[in-house]
Amino acid sequence: MTDETSRKRRLLLRSGKSPFDTGSLEDALHRDVFATNTGNLIFSDAAHKILTTPRTDVFSNGIRAVPSEAERINEEYDVFVVPLANAFRPTFERPLARMMQLIRKLRIPVVVLGVGAQAPLAYDAERLKPMEQTVRQFVAAVLDRSASIGVRGEFTARYLADMGFRDVEVIGCPSMFLNGATFTLTKRQGPLTAESRIAVNGSHSAVRAHGLDAIIRRAHGRYPHLRFIGQNLLEAELLHWRETAHPDGAQTSMPTHPSHPMYREDKVRLYVDPVTWIEELRDFDFSFGSRIHGNIAALLAGVPSTVLCSDSRTLELCRYFEIPHRRISEVPDTVDPAELYEAADFGGLVNGHEERFLRFIGFLERNGLENTFTHGDGGAAFDARLAGLALPPAVRPWIGNDPEALSARFGWLRSRMEELAAHNAQLRGRLAGRTSPVGVRIQIGQGAGTLPTVYRRARRVVGRPVRKLLRPEE
User: Fold this and answer.
1) Residue from 177, 215, 227, 92 nearest 358 by CA
2) What is the pTM of this model?
3) What pLDDT, on a 0 to 100 scale, did the predictor assign at position 464?
4) Confidence of residue 449 (pLDDT cuts 50, 70, 90)
5) Are residues 372 and 50 in contact, defined by beta-carbon separation less than 8 angstroms?
6) Cα–Cα distance, 228 to 239 (Å, whole number)
7) DSSP character for 443?
8) Which end of the chain is less enclosed by CB atoms within 10 A, N or C?
């Protein structure tokens, strides 16, 4: 056997972090390891597990595409796999263009998993017209390096077909295949009661503009064990630091806002690791809301779920996987979660799962990718390795002065100050080595140039959180 044929294949995966990365909550939020939305980790971790085989090692590349790294990627890796969600949307055009520039420089295969277009529920692609050229260039670059491109559902497939692309396959989202060809889901007998444990999720736009705030408010009054599961970075910042620079952080109708009753009652969580997220949902009876991956996490935990769809990205995925769903515009704000639970039918989801799984691994095989369920141990080693890690707990509301919680926050802030101090000292050393004493005196003595930036960074990182530590209940 030659060295080339025996060498393990090195697969580069676009993901915010490896599933095996551990660290503090503070560090995870500071680094934004989930690219503003923890739902991204649900499908990237699933892809990592699925693509890990005895002959393939998977490495995380981070989220940001850097075209100048193309040559290094060409030299070090055999294939670049890109799991995506609603990448065809106007606010993502610039990152999509950077990714296209990187892909154009790659000589290795590039495989895209589950990309989707985002439009209104009526599947009207008119709002995507201004970015059509960027989408065309991206898809063309991918298809030059793969047999086909995998999309989320019917709308995205039609959107690309209307542009003339033919090598398009509907594969859904990798997250739904985390456990392979089988999908187990048990609907509890009888209706939901006041003692039922219910998880709810929702975006800021769904809460603000689609009446989800009223639904949550009523459910909170009826179900004492209701829990809101957040997903955004700004929500994590509000939970952990009680503040965020994002303007949406001022939305008091969100349960992640410190003034909300659910926040004050410690009934909000956010997870920076999918395995923790899924595990903690296993004891719930039902999940609902507008977050597609928030509800997929519940489904993977074996919990019945209903998605309240607000746009094409969630609707086409629900239709493909036959996940119980309703258009949020047609749901009255008086709806009771018990009604959603009672009406939900999971027959199509469970019974059609194996066929969809076979379609998915067929797509992988046509693009030269092995999978752990056909070519490996079904993910047993992956799951065992995850089980042995000390992963951070859920992010939860900061509502008290628990010494352990304060110690963790102060410890991280202190380490950040030490890092910034070391960086500051390094800059001072560089400035002191300059030949012009006037330049050094101006830079150091008057605090101009780079040094104030360091001080501003320090104040920005630790100033406000420290004040919150001293008076957390304000």
Assistant:
1) 177
2) 0.87
3) 55
4) very low
5) yes
6) 12
7) I
8) N
